[in-house]
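How a chain folds remains the central question behind the approach discussed here. The record that follows shows the chain in one-letter code together with its fold in token form:
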Amino acid sequence: MSRPVIPRLVGLGIRTFVTLEGFVCGPGSGQPSLDGRPRCFFVIHNKNHVTIFRDIERKLTALGVSVFFVSIGGHRHAQQAISAARVAGLEPIDVAQMGRAACAGDVICVGNDWGPKRLLHWLARVQKRGVPLIGIVEGARFSLPGLYKRVDILLCWGPSGLEIGARSAEIVGSPVIEHARQRLQKKHDRPRVLINYKFSGTEEDKGFAWGAAAIEAARIIDPDFVISAHPSSRGVPADVQVSAEPFLQLLGNSTIVITKASTVIYEALAAGVSVLYFPHGDEKNAEFGDPLGAFAVANGRQELIQRAKDYARQPMFMEREARAFLDRHVSVEPDRPANDRIVAALIAVMKRPEPVAYL
């Protein structure tokens, strides 16, 4: 029986990649780099992953690493991820190509290690070859059960990330939260409300009730409230206008944000914006279940209305408590940006002579 012909991955220039057919290797053996350069594969489930990984890719490429963005054909957000990568100047390869090519000496990075099944199939195969699987926390609620249990090393945001049960973990901070923290909060002559609306897919029905309650509360504080909706959101109330301005710009124009569980809570606190956390009925709170006094929590419409009235009477930002919450969950080193820390961690893994099985 003849051995299969596997696509050979070759990096051309800095940010353009192609596949060349005709490389022959045994099943499951992987394909070492032709030029001897280390390789790093970033699996992109969605547009957000492209945003998270893009600057890391640039830094690794500048250090001589061949970098590939990997899409998951058939995944519901695959085309969104591919389009975002192409806008960034990158042509993704498919996860099957990565699965056949990756071998010991390479590194695979994921923001999500719990699905879909097609990705998990290929990750299991490459891990058997000694390829280290590195998790890079993609967003909030990283401590929920089942997350980051397959990765060999988790690059987490802060001290709380060391407690979630990953095989091995290293604190690197969050470039997203750092970016929000660096923005100067504007002075406002009165309270300004931003509603962060994020309900998609099967959550659409929940979104109607949540949105109506959030709008009712917002009007108590600020009749000119603004709504920002996640691109994948469904069920936004038809009688309100959703702002198209960049989210961080809207956040900078606000004094308080009403939101369900989201990375937005971190971004708001980092930017000096108060948070009114309004979880929907069966939402899993994760780290937001213990706010440490950093933000108000409203469990239900009546509580939300009361919290809105409290803020309208006495607008304030709990600065000391916000700092404590952020310090618990997000590490910041002023002289070492998070992306530099992530790159240093990845380079260190690439230089390890031991197979990943030692972890």
